[in-house]
Design goal:
There is one protein chain. This protein is mostly helical and 264 residues long. It has a single domain, classed as Rhopdopsin 7-helix transmembrane proteins (Up-down Bundle). Helix content is 70%, strand content 0%. The C terminus is likely disordered.
Length: 264
């Protein structure tokens, strides 16, 4: 990318990031919806409440293990070596989303929801770090990894702390969840990848957005002649998005180079 164009693109990304943070600071606190835990499908199977919501969460276990297996299997993954800790942390977080989500759906309440959201927040932030490292700058991706993870964890700890004080505030979790959804497409469009294609990232974003639609229409989908509810389908679709990303990492190449790591 032309240095001037890269400077402009970096400025756009920085402005959007800063605007998002400042905007959240001036927002009123966002309380947890009291009806959030009332999922459409509350069927018990084998005396396990919310069975299908809990079991469908296991799809994240498989997606996380598939990603970790590919990272550690020599030659099966085309990645940026300097960013390997971020890839590992991302797929580890996805794996723990399966555990946290399954645990939450066995007894849905704000306390168990903490363990569902914590690995999700870390997954969002580590993926964001990977994309920064691959597209913008390897060094920036490395430097941003732990600050972003801390931001993600803080958003959940802060929400739980405010819930305990009777003034629950989800603003920072909303920031952690949705700001990357805005910034990642901008980065994909404005910066050039060192690899042959970026379809995996786009498809993961599409899967995530489709999962959010299923989540929103949980009861409407459950009332259709389908076996699963919208929330259970959300888990499956989001996990499939991660598996698509894993497959794309296996198939991409870095044109004109025999190494996996791009130049900064």
């Amino acid at each position: 990318m032309n240095p001037d164009n890269k400077s402009i693109a970096s400025t756009v990304i920085a402005l959007v990031f800063i605007t998002g943070i400042v905007g959240v600071l001036f927002m009123d606190p966002i309380a947890q919806d009291a009806g959030y835990h009332q999922f459409a499908d509350q069927r018990a199977v084998f005396n396990i409440p919310g069975f299908w919501n809990a079991v469908s969460s296991l799809a994240f276990l498989y997606a996380g293990m598939a990603g970790l297996h590919a990272v550690f299997r020599y030659g099966s993954f085309k990645l940026v070596e300097e960013l390997k800790p971020a890839y590992i942390l991302f797929f580890t977080a996805v794996f723990f989303v399966g555990i946290g989500s399954g645990y939450y759906h066995l007894s849905p309440n704000n306390e168990s929801l903490f363990w569902d959201r914590l690995p999700m927040a870390i997954a969002f932030m580590t993926l964001f770090s990977v994309i920064i490292g691959e597209f913008v700058s390897v060094e920036l991706g490395k430097l941003s990894l732990w600050p972003l993870i801390i931001l993600g964890a803080f958003s959940i700890v802060y929400w739980q702390y405010t819930e305990a004080r009777g003034i629950g505030d989800l603003r920072y979790y909303v920031l952690v969840q949705f700001l990357p959804v805005i910034l990642i497409p901008l980065i994909l469009l404005l910066f050039k990848s060192p690899f042959s294609n970026v379809n995996g990232y786009w498809l993961l974003l599409c899967a995530y957005l489709l999962a959010k639609i299923f989540e929103h229409f949980d009861r409407a989908i459950y009332n259709m002649p389908l076996f699963l509810s919208g929330h259970s389908l959300k888990h499956i679709v989001a996990a499939v998005g991660v598996l698509i990303l894993v497959n794309s990492f296996k198939n991409r190449v870095q044109p004109g180079s025999t190494t996996n790591a791009p130049n900064t």
